[in-house]
Design goal:
Elements (H helix, E strand, L loop, with lengths): L17 H72 L7 H6 L6 E8 L4 E4 L12 H7 L7 E7 L6 E10 L5 E9 L1 H11 L6 E6 L4 E6 L3 E2 L9 H8 L2 E7 L6 E8 L5 E8 H4 L1 H35 L1 H15 L4 E6 L5 E6 L1 H7 L17 H17 L3 E9 L2 E13 L5 E10 L1 H19 L3 E6 L4 E4 L1 H7 L3 H4 L14 H14 L1 E9 L5 E12 L5 E10 L1 H15 L9 H18 L2 E10 L1 H8 L1 H17 L6 E6 L2 E9 L4 H17 L2 E3 L2 E3 L2 E9 L6 H17 L5 E3 L10
Parallel strand pairs: 27-28
Antiparallel strand pairs: 1-2, 1-5, 3-4, 4-5, 6-7, 6-11, 7-8, 9-10, 10-11, 12-13, 12-16, 14-15, 15-16, 17-18, 17-21, 19-20, 20-21, 22-24, 22-27, 23-24, 25-26
Helix pairs in contact: 1-7, 17-18
Keywords: Membrane, Transmembrane, Transmembrane helix
Protein name: PAS domain S-box/diguanylate cyclase (GGDEF) domain-containing protein
Pfam family, one: dCache_1_like
Length: about 750
C-alpha cells in the first residue's frame, strides 16, 4: 500500500565538490596575493634604500653645517683668547686698535667688547653708548668662578649694538686671580645660516644649532631663519640627544608639525648640538612615484588574473546551477527560522497543508501527522481558518503576492505573524499551490508596546529626562528637558552632555561622579548647568546606568529637577539671617561673630583692635518730620559714607535703628589709638555733610564710643559694654564727637 507524500520536499542531491570548480579562482587569488606580496617586499626595500640615501645626504649636510658653525665659533673664541691675553697682560689698557682693525670688515662679528667688573661696557670695536651689562647671562656666569671655558649664551638683543647676536664670553682676571671683567664676542647668528640661504635649501629642509639649555641659537629653513626658539621638554630632539652624542631619528617637527628625518651631533668642546632635517615626504617623493607605477602595473595584472579565474569559475558554476538552486531551496526551507508552509488547492477551492518546515510545526504547536494533508479548519480555530482562507483566495484571484499581519490562536498561545502568500503555478497558468512564508512579530509587537508605553511615560513626566548611550552621546530627551534647557531635541542629539556644562564644577567633581556610576550604577547630587541662552541653573540630578542581559553597559539615564528657585530662596534666607535688609551691612549676629574671630586673631598675632559704638544725632527729628521712607534712605546714605572712609578690612554693622558699630583690626599697639581716633573723625566729618533727598537737605551728626583690645577688655561682652558706655558719655558731653573709654566712665569697674 502506498504511503502519503513526505512532510517536506525530499530532494536527493549528491554534493558536488566545490573545491574543484573554485580551483581556478583560488589559483588566481593565490597568484595575485603572491604578486602583491612580491611588490610589497620590493617596495619595502626601495623605501629603505631611499630613506638610507636621504639619511646619508642628511648626515653630510649636518656635518657640513656642524663644521661651518664649529669653525665660526672657534674663530670667535680664538679672538676672545687673544683679547683676554692682551687685557690681562696690560691691565690698564682701554684701546685695542689691532682688534678693531682686524674685525673692521668681518661679517661674523656683531661686536667685540670688554665689560668691566662693575658691568659697564669699557671697550667695543664699534661705537657705543655707556651701558651696564651686569644683568646679562654671559656676564653673570663668570662673576663667581673661573671655569676656564668659553660660555655661549642664548640669542640676545645687544644694548650697545642693537642687533641680535650669540654672545661668546670669557672671564678676565686680575693678576691675583680676582674677577676683572668679561671679554665678549657677539656673533651674528644670521652668519651661520647665510650661506645655506644663498645656495638654497631643498623644500622642507631645516638646520638648527641648539644649546644644552633647549634654546635654538639659530633655526634655518628654506623659507626663513628663526632665532631664540625654545624646545619643549618632551621634544623628540631632546630625547635623542639624551641617548647619544650623534645619531638619527624620525619625528614630527615641534614647530611646524612636518614629519622629518633628522641627523644630529654634538659640537666638540662646545655646549652645543647641531641638527639637520629633511621633509620625509620630499625624501620619499621618488619612491612614491615608483610605488604608484608598480602598483598600477600590479593592479592591471591582478585584474587580468582575477577575470580569468572568475570566467573559469563561472563556466564551472553554470554546469551545476540547477542542482544548486534546488539544494539551496531545500536548505532554506528546512533551516529557516521563519515558518514556511506549502498549501495545495483542491478542485473545490479548499486548501490542505502539503509541506511545512520545522519552524511551522513549532509555531503551530503540533506534530507533523496532525497537519499533513489536513484542511485549515482542522488545524486552526474557525475564525482564524476563515481569515487564512480569504487571504489564500485573494492570492489565487489576483495571481500576485499578498501580505497580511494576523494574530492567530495556537495550542502554544496567541501569536502575531506577518504572512506572505506567494502563488505557485503548475507549469501552466493554473495556480495549484500557495506558499506561505511567515515572520513571527509577537515579541517585536510586545517590545514596541512596551517602548511606546515607556516613551509616553517619559514624554509626560514633569522632570527633564536625557538618555545617552554607552559612549555618552545624547540620543533621546523629553519635552521637559527642552523646556528646562532651551534646546530642541535635534540640537542636542548625538552631542555630549558637556554642552550643558556650567564651568562651576572641576574635573575632580566629575571624576567622583563617574566612579560612583562604575561602582554603584547610580549617582545623585546637585549640579549647576548652563541654559542655551547662557544663564546658569541649579538642578538635582539622578544618573542611572542601564545594562543588557549580558551585563554590558548600554545607556545612562539622566533625570533633572530644577532647584534654582529653592537655592535662591535659601541664599536669600541665609543673607537675611546675617545682613541688614535696609543697608546690606552685617547685622548684630554676624558682627558679633566677626568680633569673636577678630579677638582670636588679635590674641594669636599679638595685635590690637578697636570697637566703635555709634549713634546718630538728630536722626529722630528727620524721621519724624520727613517720614520713615526718607529716614530709611538717610540711613542707607550714612552706611555708605561710613564704609567709604574706612579700610577694606574694617567691618561696619547696623545694630538696629540709627545705631552702628565699627571694628578696626590689625592695629599697631603704639599707634592704634591715634589711628582709631583719626578714623572716628573721618566718620563724623562724612556724616556731618548734608544729605540731599527729594530736593531737601538734611544734616545729622554722630556720637561715637571707642573701646580697645586688650587695654579695655579681652572678651566680646566687656568690649561692647565699654564702647557703648563711651558712646553715651559722648552724647552726654555735647554729641557729634567721639570718646574713648576710660575707667572714670565706669567707676564701679575701676
Amino acid at each position: 500500500m502506498k504511503t502519503d507524500a513526505p512532510i517536506r520536499p525530499q530532494v536527493s542531491l549528491r554534493p558536488i565538490r566545490r573545491g574543484v570548480e573554485a580551483l581556478p579562482l583560488l589559483l588566481a587569488l593565490l597568484l595575485s596575493a603572491l604578486l602583491w606580496a612580491a611588490v610589497d617586499i620590493i617596495l619595502a626595500h626601495e623605501k629603505e634604500r631611499e630613506l638610507e640615501h636621504g639619511y646619508r645626504q642628511l648626515d653630510y649636510l649636518r656635518r657640513t653645517f656642524q663644521e661651518h658653525s664649529h669653525n665660526t665659533l672657534t674663530t670667535a673664541d680664538q679672538i676672545l683668547r687673544l683679547l683676554k691675553a692682551e687685557f690681562e697682560e696690560r691691565p690698564g689698557t682701554r684701546e685695542f686698535s689691532e682688534f678693531r682693525r682686524a674685525l673692521e670688515h668681518s661679517s661674523i662679528f656683531v661686536q667685540l667688547g670688554v665689560i668691566g667688573a662693575d658691568g659697564e661696557l669699557q671697550w667695543s670695536n664699534v661705537p657705543f653708548k655707556q651701558v651696564n651689562l651686569k644683568d646679562r647671562e654671559h656676564f653673570q656666569v663668570h662673576v663667581d668662578r673661573d671655569s676656564g671655558q668659553v660660555f655661549i649664551s642664548k640669542p640676545v638683543l645687544g644694548r650697545a649694538s642693537g642687533k641680535w647676536s650669540i654672545q661668546l664670553s670669557r672671564r678676565l682676571n686680575h693678576q691675583d686671580g680676582s674677577f676683572a671683567g668679561v671679554a665678549v664676542a657677539s656673533v651674528d647668528p644670521q652668519y651661520l645660516a647665510r650661506f645655506y640661504q644663498e645656495v638654497g635649501l631643498q623644500a622642507g629642509t631645516v638646520l638648527g644649532l641648539i644649546g644644552y639649555d633647549r634654546v635654538l641659537r639659530v633655526r634655518v629653513t628654506d623659507k626663513e631663519t628663526a632665532i631664540g626658539q625654545t624646545l619643549s621638554d618632551g621634544a623628540p630632539l631632546l630625547r635623542a640627544l639624551h641617548q647619544g652624542s650623534d645619531g638619527r631619528f624620525r619625528a614630527p617637527s615641534s614647530f611646524d608639525g612636518t614629519m622629518r628625518l633628522y641627523s644630529y651631533g654634538q659640537m666638540p668642546g662646545l655646549a652645543l648640538s647641531v641638527v639637520a632635517g629633511f621633509d620625509e615626504a620630499q625624501v620619499l617623493a621618488p619612491y612614491q612615484e615608483r610605488a604608484r607605477s608598480y602598483r598600477r602595473i600590479t593592479a592591471a595584472s591582478t585584474a587580468a588574473l582575477l577575470l580569468t579565474g572568475l570566467l573559469l569559475w563561472w563556466l564551472l558554476a553554470r554546469l551545476r546551477q540547477a542542482r544548486q538552486e534546488v539544494e539551496a531551496a531545500h536548505a532554506v526551507f528546512s533551516a529557516s527560522p521563519d515558518p514556511m508552509v506549502m498549501l495545495q488547492r483542491d478542485p473545490g477551492g479548499h486548501f490542505h497543508y502539503r509541506y511545512f518546515n520545522p519552524a511551522a510545526l513549532t509555531l503551530a504547536g503540533r506534530r507533523a501527522e496532525e497537519m499533513q494533508h489536513h484542511p485549515l479548519d482542522q488545524v486552526l480555530t474557525p475564525e482564524d481558518a476563515l481569515r487564512r482562507q480569504l487571504m489564500l483566495e485573494q492570492t489565487v484571484r489576483s495571481g500576485q503576492v499578498q501580505e497580511a499581519e494576523q494574530t492567530t490562536t495556537y495550542p502554544s498561545g496567541e501569536r502575531t505573524v506577518r504572512w506572505t502568500a506567494v502563488p505557485v503555478h503548475d507549469g501552466s497558468d493554473h495556480i495549484s499551490h500557495v506558499a506561505l512564508i511567515g515572520h513571527d512579530l509577537t515579541q517585536l509587537r510586545e517590545e514596541q508596546r512596551q517602548l511606546w508605553l515607556s516613551d509616553a511615560i517619559v514624554a509626560q513626566t514633569h522632570e527633564a529626562v536625557m538618555v545617552t548611550d554607552a559612549s555618552e552621546r545624547i540620543f533621546r530627551v523629553n519635552p521637559a528637558f527642552c523646556l528646562m534647557t532651551g534646546y530642541a531635541p535635534e540640537e542636542v542629539e548625538d552631542h555630549s552632555p558637556g554642552l550643558l556644562a556650567s564651568g562651576v564644577h572641576d574635573a575632580e567633581f566629575y571624576h567622583h561622579m563617574h566612579q560612583a556610576l562604575q561602582s554603584r550604577g547610580f549617582w545623585q547630587g546637585e549640579v549647576w548647568q548652563r541654559h542655551k541662552d547662557g544663564h546658569l541653573f541649579a538642578c538635582l540630578l539622578d544618573i542611572s546606568t542601564l545594562r543588557d542581559g549580558e551585563g554590558r553597559l548600554t545607556h545612562y539615564v539622566h533625570v533633572f529637577s530644577d532647584i534654582t528657585e529653592q537655592k535662591h530662596l535659601a541664599e536669600q534666607m541665609e543673607h537675611l539671617a546675617h545682613f541688614d535688609g535696609l543697608t546690606q551691612l552685617p547685622n548684630r549676629n554676624l558682627f558679633q561673630d566677626r568680633l569673636c574671630q577678630a579677638l582670636a586673631r588679635a590674641e594669636r598675632n599679638g595685635t590690637g583692635l578697636a570697637l566703635m559704638f555709634m549713634d546718630l544725632d538728630g536722626f529722630k527729628a528727620v524721621n519724624d518730620s520727613a517720614g520713615h521712607n526718607t529716614g530709611d534712605r538717610l540711613l542707607v546714605e550714612v552706611a555708605r559714607r561710613i564704609t567709604s572712609v574706612l579700610r577694606k578690612v574694617d567691618s561696619v554693622s547696623r545694630q538696629g535703628g540709627d545705631e552702628f558699630t565699627v571694628l578696626l583690626e590689625s592695629l599697631n599697639n603704639g599707634q592704634g589709638i591715634a589711628e582709631t581716633e583719626e578714623a572716628a573723625r573721618r566718620i563724623i566729618a562724612a556724616i556731618n555733610e548734608p544729605v540731599l533727598l527729594d530736593g531737601r537737605s538734611f544734616r545729622v551728626g554722630a556720637s561715637i564710643g571707642i573701646a580697645f583690645y586688650p587695654a579695655d577688655g579681652d572678651n566680646v561682652e566687656l568690649l561692647m559694654a565699654r564702647a557703648d558706655a563711651a558712646m553715651y558719655q559722648a552724647k552726654a558731653r555735647g554729641k557729634n564727637r567721639h570718646l574713648c573709654w576710660t575707667p572714670e566712665l565706669a567707676p564701679g569697674e575701676a
